[in-house]
Amino acid sequence: MRVIVTGTGDAFSTERFGSSALIQTPEGFTAIDCPASPLGMYRRASEVSGIAIDPGCIHDLIMTHLHADHAGGLETMAFYRRYKAPDSPKPRLWAAPGVMARMWERLAPSMDGRGLGETPASSLEDFFEPGELALDGDTRVGPLTVRVRWTIHAVPTVGLLISDGESTLGWSSDTEFHVEHADWLAEADLIVHECGESVKHATWEQLSTLPEDLQRRTRLLHVPDDVDLPDGSMKRLHDGEVLEVQSRISESI
What we know:
This protein is an alpha/beta fold. It has nine helices and 14 strands.
């Protein structure tokens, strides 16, 4: 599985895009979250990674939660696909039920087209094909299989286990440190964990208590701009970095 890390910043970053990624698939790309300024983010990730990223080829978007540094680019993506890439199919938009329930509530004030009137001219379905991520079991998202788990955060948020049938990516999403969540993510071949170093987020000190094997499989993002992390097994990610997720079983053969 090839993962392009499109953003590694937190909500207050002035240097990086919001924490997010693209998974390259035979169909194009599946996005994990969509922070503000996604077109610039994807252009920058293309330049750094050397992988051409066409926003019109993003066929699925998986949203972990609705904070702006994770969902602030959905409006841009919706209008881009409608007006700049009208020949591409509507992207599928995925979220857990508690997140999807308020998706249009968040987007409607700028997207429902009612003007000065009272009657909306558009709905979420006009821009996306919405789908809910199962809270119990797997959800098929394009060519991938996705499993979710609620995290501990200020708004409904899910962590992700994403498999292409050969390897599995673990994505903590925004969360306080929670051993049970880390244990759940341990099934993955590679784990991308947030390290927010603040309230409602995990810290390096907490993550460094995890077993060494788990730390070696963990990469960090959502680190504040002014924080320098200690050296260790858990490496800090950078915008545009490419991760090749390999099955631990095949690596051991």
